[in-house]
Structures are given as structure tokens and as C-alpha cells.
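Dear colleague,

Following up on yesterday's call, I've attached the two folding results inline so they're easy to grep. Please treat them as preliminary; we haven't cross-checked anything against experimental data yet. The first protein's sequence and C-alpha cells come first.
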Amino acid sequence: MSGSLPRPLPALDRDNAAYWTGGEKGELLICRCGDCGYYVHPPVRFCPECESRDVAPQPVSGRGSVYTFTINYKQWVPRLPERYVLALVALAEQEDVLLPCNVVNCDPDEVTFGMPVKVLFEQCEDLWVPLFEPAGR
């Protein structure tokens, strides 16, 4: 998938705005607890690990691995490719942070469990959607 594709866009709020706009500066921003260092996703201002409210978005490396995935074989809307990858990517910083995303810039049949990936961003209106591609590219 390349170029801006038709995709539903989230409504921004205080908690998720950094995640959806950080890509403008090339940053993947994930909420992190200032007290215990635990990463929190989906983004909320509460740490489920230590119950602190000192949680704020922090840049991460943008690296991870494919935790699980599926290949979609149906073109649900016009301009959407017939085959594309829907995945959960585990962040390198904390493997239990799983980001739902698309894996792009490779044939869907090349995607494997545990495959190293890196983030890139697709601008959609005023949002920057995090996508992932093979890390070797």
C-alpha cells in the first residue's frame, strides 16, 4: 500500500493526539509512565502497572517485530488493494505494547511472525498514520 488510502480516521482527543500527529516530526509517540517507566497503549493518562497518573507521550525507536498478522484478500472499498497485511507489531522497547497496523513495502507473502520492522508514516489529512515496513529496507 502506498500513497494515501481510504481509511477511517480516529477522532483526536487529549490522550491519543500525540500518537496520531507525532509522525509529522518522524516520531512514534507512545505514552510512558514517569514513575515506573511502563509504556501504555492504547494511549491513556493512567499507568495500569503502578496506578500513577504521571503518564505522557514519549518518542520510541519505531522498531519492533510482527507479533501476529493476517493477509486480507478482499477489496472492501475502492482504491484499497485486494491483498494487504493487517498486523500487530510488538514494540522493541516493551513487547507487550502491540500496535495494530499495516505492514507495507513488501509482498504480503513475505511477512512472517517475528519479522523485524520499522515505522514509517502515511499522512491522511492532518493525521500521520503509523505503518510498518521490513527493517532491512
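Below is the second protein, in the same order (sequence, then structure):
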Amino acid sequence: MQSIRKAIAYSSAGRYLRLVIGLATSIVTARMLSPEEIGTFAIASSVVMIMAEFRILGANAYIVRLPTVGVEEIRSAYGLTILVSWGMGAVLAAAAWPLGNFFDTEGLVGVFLLLSVSFIFAPYISIPDALMTRKYKFREITAINITSAIVQLAAVVLFIKMGLSFYSLALSQLCGVLIKCSLGLFFTREIKVYAPRLVGIKSIARLGIFVSVGHVIRKAQTTFPDMLIGKLGNPAQVGLFSRGLGFTVFSSSLVLSGILPVALPYLSSVNNKGQDVGSAYRHAMQLITGVSWPILAVASVASLPAIRLMFGDQWDQAAPVASVAAFWAMFRAAHVLAPNALIAVGKEGSMLTKEVIVFVAFLLVTTFGYIANGIIGVAYAFVCSGAIDFLISSWFVRSKIGLNFLTYCMAMARSVVLAVICWGAAKLLSFFVPFDQVPPFVIFLYMCALMPVVWLGSIFMIGHPLKKQIMIVFRHVLARN
């Protein structure tokens, strides 16, 4: 358990630093580029992010899940990822002109061509990352991600200053990819396995198809709206929606980004030892929702000052999207570990079935939402799809890992109470300090002073399971001192 805590500590610290740098990048680009320019890049990146999930075809999950990994398994993983990733990069480059014509947006062709280059380096990023993940080398992974993020931030500022507009975003992303590739190979240099082979790729591809399609479907829930709005609306609407949804995703990632990389190796280890995956899943979700739900509840109230503080007044129309989407993120966080749990117990087929059902419902409600009420209609459609996701995920978790629905809901009850208390405190503050009139930095200071006290006090008052973890950390700090 100590190794798990250490891995989560490194992963969380690195992800949080990366989130801060990513936030700084978003702030810089939002203030240096217009909604139309950012929306143009968002349309292209939404297409590429979906394709990017296929380029490694689950080879990283295959390596992480195996009890032991040898030279031949690594070579097979390289063989499959090179075959798929390079092929998809070529397809994307060839499709740049048809895609540009489809969305009828000037400059998209060049962005697609630049983003296609990253597919060349994907195998030599994903395989080293998987090798480090299975050994819980999150300190090295953190170093890679932070260095890449810093380089990307510096590059985007330089390129925008050079007058490259939305091309700056694609060029800086490519710089980050080159850094990840170089450092990933450096930190796994003792393995010295780079030559691909095509023998033995069938078992990897079988897992990869399920994992990659599942990832694509989950990713599409944040990227499909950009394509939908880009086709039916205009780049400015895409920019506003992506910034509103991006704020919600950022708020959720404050907790989840540090935990998710550790989830699959942890749950796989529990399953390999013959322990109860359902019990481990329930306990992990209690801790995750105890942190993520209060953050999202507060974000739903304070979206306007937060967006003004980060991006400026020109993005005010993104605030209603963020407020509504926060409830979608809460539904989604309720079973955020479900895909990892199903993969860990060898039920990746069930994971894919679940994602397909949810995505079909998502496509229907989001399309109807935009036609009915524009981008805010899409936000409400997100909430509807989130509720569907929660119910379907609960059924699969019950049937595949034996976690009873009522037992799980009862376990989440204290997290619900904790989120309601924090939401009420933020709402009460908005009555005394009007969020639309007071400078956003002042509201930020009020939030920083009030919300941690409310959250911690509520944890001890209602006896949330986080109380035990906080006390463990507190005793550990006292013992070290």
C-alpha cells in the first residue's frame, strides 16, 4: 500500500503541476488569440484526439496488465503501435484537404498536417510510458510531463508572437511530443528494446481494440461537440463551448488526473492477488468523490468569476456552459474507475459494450440539444448523458465485479452530503459577494479562505472516509517531524 500511496503522490504532484502549466497555457492563448482562432484549432484537435486513441491500440494497457514482460512482448507492442500509428498518421495527412472542405474553415488543412506528424513518435512515447507505469516510476513520468508542458508553453507564446495565429497551438503541441519521446526513451534506456516485430500482435490487438475503442468513445464525449458545433455553427461558438467545458474538465482533473494513471496497475494487482476488486473499487470511489464532487459543486456556482479571472471578459458566454457541465462531470466521476476495473478483471468486452451504449445516447441528446437551444442546450444534454452513464456503469459494475447498486449508493451518500454543503457555502457567499459585480480576484481570495475550511470541517462532522486518510497523513507528518 505504501508503494501505491507514493505512486499516487508523485502522479498527483506531477499532474497538478502540469494542470497549472496547462492552465497558464490556456490563459495565455485565450488572451492572445480570439474565440474564432481557438475554435478553429479546437475543430481540428477534436478530430485528431479521437484518432490518437487508436494509434497505440491498447499496447500500453497490455504491457501494464501482464504479470511479467520480456523482450519479445515489448517488441510485439512496438510492432503493433508502429504499424497502426504510422498508418493513421498517413491517413490523417491524406484526409487533411477533404476534412478542411467538410468543415469549411480556413486554415484547417495546415493544422491537420502539423498534427499528423505526432503519430510518427507515438509508439516511442506510449511503450516507455507503459514500462515505467507498471514499475510505478511516476517520478520519471512526472519529469517528462512537466518538461514537455513547460516547453509547450514557451513555444506557444513564441509562435503567437511570431504571428502564426492558431498554427501556434499545433506547432507547440508538436514540440511537446518531441520532448516526451526523447525523455521517455532516455528514462527506459536500460531496456534497449526498440526493434518491432509482428509476431504475437494478435493478443495485443484483441485487448487493444476493446481498450482503444472504449477510450475513443469516452474521449468523443468531450470532442464530438466541437465537431458538431463546428459543422452546424461557427468557430466562435466552438471556442466558447470548448472553454466552458474545458473549465469543467480542469476542475474535475484537479483530483482525477493524479489518480487515474495508478488505477489500472492498482486494480490489476488486487485482482492478480485474488482479492476483492469490488471492495477496493468502492473504497477508492468514496475517496475520489469526496474530493471531486465538492470541487465540481463549487465550480458550478463560481464559473463566471473563474472564467473571467482565467480568460477575461470576452469569454463570459462560456460561464453558463461550465455551470451546467459541472453536473455532468459529477455523474461521470461517480464511476470514473469503471473502465479500469473492467479491464483489470479481464472484462474489456463489457467495458466496450457499456461505452457504446452510453455514446449512442450521448450522440442523440447532444445533437437534439444544439438544435433546440444552441451551446447551452448541448451542456444540458451532457448532464442527461451523464445520468445515463451512471446508471449503465452501475449495472456493469454490479454484474462484472459484484458490487451491489444499493450498497454502492449508500457508500457514496457521505460524498453527496459533502458536495451539497460545499455548494451551499459557495451559493451563500454569492449572495453577500455578487459574483457578477465584484472583481474575480477578490472572489478567488474569498473562495481560498472559505472553502477549504468548509470542506475539512464537513469531512470530520459527517465522518467521511477521507477523515481516516487525512489522519494517516497528519500522523505521518508528525512522526517525520
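For the second protein, one point worth flagging: The radius of gyration is 22 Å.

Best wishes,
A.L.
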